[in-house]
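Ticket #4471: complex job returned nothing on first submit. Input attached below:
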Amino acid sequence: MLDLVREYDVLGAFWVTVQLTVYAAVGSLVIGTVIAILRVSPVRIFSWAGAMYVNVVRNTPLTLIVFFLFFCLYQLLGWHLAPLSARSSTHAFVWGVVGLSLYHASFVAEALRSGINTVGVGQAEAARSIGLDFGQSLREVILPQAFRGAIAPLGNTMIALTKNTTVVSTIGVAEASYAMKNAIEFSPNVLYLIFAVMSLGFVVLTLPMGVLFTQVSRRLAVQR
Amino acid sequence: MTQSILFDIPGPRAARRNRIVGVVGAVVVLGLLGLVVYGLRDQLSPQMWAPFLSPDTWQYYVYPGVFMTLQAALLSVVLASALGLALGIGRLSHNRLVGWVSAVFVEFFRSVPVLMMMLFAFYVALFTLRLPGDILPIFGVVVGLTLYNSCVMAELIRSGVHSLPQGQREAGLAIGLTPGQTLWSVLLPQAITAMLPSLVSQLVVILKDTALGYLITYPDLIRSMQNLSAVKGNLVTAFIVAALIFILINYSLTSLAHWLERTLGGRRAGPGAVMRTGLAMDPDLEADAGRAT
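Support reply: We reran it on our side without changes. The output follows.
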């Protein structure tokens, strides 16, 4: 088994998976927060645009989003986010992170909106009655509580994100499922062992995340 | 709703300011969109859309692709419901061994990415079962989707039964039903009705995940659109049409789930309102429901 891990660079592949997850998590949190703020904002066209984004992105397969970015924007139009001299795998990695971020941002936005809904009406009323405007009450009162209420669904999104990083193997990023396909094709006689090792890797990645998020969401839950 | 509480009903000055901010924001967003469209202008020209005016395109590329996608999704949803029900009952069973085996199965397959299970099923069919080549892709897609989604459904059933009022089970036992009969004829019907909206949302997840079959050469909508563009050179418009079809189908399913939630929501009483968390409509969040609880 150790030979297998060494021969197909399993650890290296999982390191790529972890990097994809971390970058896309940051990206989707930033974009998702912006979308969530747009959705609850008093400007009607903003809330409409936010809802539109969520409905469109959430109902499109991640594979299609990643393909569109990579094949249409990168390969066809030559839009590059990494320096031109970078290797093609780097370009695929960067576009993969963008695709994962855009896709999961819609789920982050929905998680935050549900978090905002857990904040008591009195909080918003109190914030307004002491004279805070929309931006201030959102920043100082609502969002800090909404984030705490949204930790459990955000955690589920992050776990889904970790597993969904496998999708970018379709554009040639050498992450875990790519390594698995490669390994199976070269050593079909140990097919079951390869699957066991690779899936164990994902259990190791996602199980602690689930435990952690559950604990944090319990500890930070707003007392009412 | 907190949403309307977040700000006052705008007065004349605020309304004017909101309008200005809205217009500026709209200009910025439209400008960005325009930049993308401008970059894609050659790809969005009329002759790139022309293939979609000919019936041949629909007959040989679009319809078969939609059919294959729906076929894989429906097969998976039927099989996953059956297996999920079995696993859900297994986890609720009083037999230690059965409960333990179901729990390990569910926890394991829920943690593994669908794509890996598809690859695994594909290669098992190829190397171990030695299935004929033409059914390998659909075997891989359906087995992968079934394994994952049966676990999600088992969790939905379990949380559905757990959230029913305790009195339901006690009443069943009190009138002399065995625990098995109570589960089957009292608890499960209520739990399944309560989880119906989530089941429909899960269908959206399954439909989207059929697109992963691309990697094991399943001829789904995305692949047939790529084949089309290989002939006509219209990759961008082909992907846009594929996206519109997916959004149309999935948005209808999501609306159906919303409607079911509203209709069923009124009929249920007590703390059995499992799905009234406001998250029921987030397929991917729902896919991992129960992990956090």
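Chain B touches chain A through 67 residues (CB under 8 Å). Closing as resolved unless it happens again.
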